[in-house]
Design goal:
Elements: H1 8-27, H2 40-43, H3 52-63, H4 66-77, H5 86-111, H6 116-124, H7 127-159, H8 168-189, H9 192-220, H10 223-240, H11 242-246, H12 261-276, H13 280-287, H14 292-301, H15 303-321, H16 332-340, H17 343-381, H18 387-411, H19 414-429, H20 432-435, H21 446-465, E1 481-486, E2 489-497, H22 498-519
Helix pairs in contact: 1-8, 1-9, 1-17, 3-9, 3-13, 3-14, 3-17, 4-7, 4-15, 4-17, 5-12, 5-14, 5-15, 6-7, 7-17, 7-18, 7-19, 8-18, 9-15, 9-17, 10-15, 12-19, 13-17, 15-16, 17-18, 19-21, 19-22, 21-22
Length: 565
């Protein structure tokens, strides 16, 4: 249940920080000031000039979203035995990106690539594969942006803004105003806005979470009692609903995954780790840095967020022990702060969650707009557009993306948006072969990679569509984990993340078709990259820290000696 009335003190604190980040968002256009933000290097990548300190906040603010702050503890509050998978996946993620992201940074800066699809076009010389990667990035990002709104809605509901109104327009005006402001300062300042605001967001999050994990145990009998209370609550639910659980109409609750759930836990962990830096907004944050060593430093420093995430997850169990009662698990953590803390601190927590939505939503909309502009608009609609035209098109597209996500949330039930978001990881994983494998080898054939993407994309989408919600056999998109089935035949009782099985199918198809196409001598296209491009750093020939708008792209014909041909 949400708050019975408007919490004036919490609202005042919330509004103070909202106004603060709004002012910072507009002033960000003057931060690291250049003559004009009239090209994608400046507007969409912050001049490619961010150092270790700024990048740490920006990348952390990008990948740890408001929905993370709401959903991770909400899964534990709901009794999901796989709820803690988010912690180990961020632990194994950083060694992975330590290896491949510096190579992507180097080739992207040498050739002025703005999006991952730009790299795919340069490496594989395939408009079809490039379009597939751009389309997948756009599609996977939209529900992700929408879910930032869901996080803000949870905060506004608990504060009490609009909750007493039966008029949907009045109820949703605060949400509309918040994202109108976000849209305007993103349009004005580009990537500099979320980069600057990330300082406030991360500082608030650390203060709130660390204070909460110290204070709450003193009020709830210590962490031992919190775990015991959660276990008693889950056991009581399982006992009361034993018949429904046996019939498949309810899911058993628990703290630790048992038996077949180990496969679900492990596959979700691995799949999520592989998927996270395939998202265009994650790559956008990485490409905004000024040299490749900053990527390595951040891969070493970012695990501090994994520590934060572990503390955050524990708040879901604290909400159970505190007796928070709500049918919507997303409201559990905001309601916990509302119930257990004074109004000023609850307002601080609400501001941290809401600002935690603004930063990733801004970066996501910028990344999606850049994909549209560079890989669809410029490629298929206006090939002769200038850098200034590209910037204008991306600015307009970023507005449309944000308001498209807003309409998406307002028009559809939140539960549908959340379940649809599960597809994001499944979809974006299918771009991994073209991007990550392309950084190391050109053995695969471009047509085989496109075919593998299509098979993985279609199969993963169908598998998720066919998965009903628990207790609602006729529903769709009810989850992303289920026992492995192929053509209706169940191959295993162990539930596995659809993204992993789709990626395996993708790789199998790409490998087999590559063997066939190579043996048939089907043309493989021209590789615009050279071996040295993957090790280039700031100061090397063709690489500068801030790229001028009028610097011409490298001549593809100069790459005749490229690798992999």
């Amino acid at each position: 249940m949400t708050s019975d009335g408007l919490d004036g003190v919490a609202l005042a604190v919330f509004l103070f920080f909202f106004i603060l980040v709004t002012v910072m968002g507009f002033l960000a256009s003057k931060w690291r000031k250049v003559a004009k933000l009239d090209n994608l290097d400046e507007w969409g990548l912050g001049g490619r000039s961010f150092g270790t300190f700024v990048a740490w906040f920006l990348i952390g603010g990008d990948i740890y979203t408001a929905y993370t702050f709401i959903a991770v503890p909400a899964t534990l509050y709901a009794g999901s035995v796989t709820g803690f998978f988010a912690v180990p996946y961020t632990i194994i993620l950083y060694p992975i990106i330590f290896i491949f992201l510096p190579r992507l940074w180097s080739v992207s800066h040498r050739h002025r690539y703005v999006t991952p699809a730009d790299f795919v076009q340069g490496r594989w010389d395939s408009k079809g594969l490039t379009l597939a990667v751009a389309f997948t990035g756009l599609l996977a990002t939209m529900p992700y942006i929408a879910l930032q709104l869901v996080g803000i809605q949870a905060v506004l509901d608990v504060i009490g803004i609009g909750t007493d109104s039966d008029n949907w327009l009045i109820k949703d005006i605060p949400l509309f105003v918040a994202f109108l402001v976000l849209a305007l300062y993103t349009y004005s300042s580009g990537l500099r806005a979320p980069a600057l605001i990330a300082f406030v967001k991360d500082s608030l999050i650390y203060v709130v979470i660390i204070a909460a994990v110290i204070y709450l145990p003193t009020q709830l009998g210590g962490w031992g009692e919190i775990f015991n209370a959660a276990e008693r609550s889950f056991n009581e639910f399982n006992s009361t609903n034993s018949d429904a659980i046996a019939a498949g109409d309810a899911t058993a609750k628990g703290l630790i995954p048992q038996g077949p759930a180990h496969w679900a836990y492990a596959s979700l962990t691995l799949g999520s780790a592989l998927a996270l830096f395939m998202y265009p907004h994650s790559i956008t944050a990485v490409l905004s840095t000024k040299n490749r060593n900053i990527i390595r430093r951040n891969a070493s420093l970012l695990p501090a967020y994994s520590f934060l995430l572990g503390l955050l997850a524990l708040l879901g169990l604290a909400a159970v022990a505190a007796g928070v009662q709500t049918d919507n698990a997303q409201l559990a953590i905001p309601q916990l702060f509302e119930n257990e803390f004074p109004g000023w601190f609850a307002g601080l927590a609400f501001a941290a969650i809401a600002i935690g939505a603004f930063v990733p939503a801004a970066i996501m909309s910028i990344a999606a707009a850049n994909l549209w502009t560079r890989n669809i608009y410029k490629t298929y609609i206006r090939p002769d557009c200038t850098p200034a035209d590209e910037a204008r098109q991306s600015k307009l597209a970023s507005l449309l993306v944000k308001f498209g996500a807003l309409v998406f949330v307002l028009a559809l039930p939140n539960e549908f948006a959340i379940n649809l978001q599960l597809l994001g990881g499944i979809w974006i994983l299918q771009t991994l072969p073209a991007i990550v494998l392309g950084l190391y080898t050109r053995w695969f054939h471009r047509y085989a990679l496109l075919s593998g993407w299509a098979v993985g994309f279609l199969w993963g989408t169908y598998a998720a569509y066919a998965q009903p919600s628990v207790g609602n056999p006729g529903s769709h998109f009810g989850g992303s984990v289920a026992p492995l089935k192929v053509f209706g035949m169940q191959l295993s009782d162990n539930p596995v993340y659809f993204g992993i099985t789709a990626l395996v199918l993708n790789l199998v198809v790409a490998t087999l078709l590559t063997l066939v196409l190579r043996s048939a001598n089907v043309p493989r296209g021209t590789d615009q990259t050279e071996p040295g491009d993957y090790r280039a750093d700031a100061g090397d020939e063709g690489v500068v820290e801030t790229l001028e708008a009028d610097l011409p792209p490298r001549d593809a014909s100069a790459a005749d000696g490229a690798t992999g041909r």
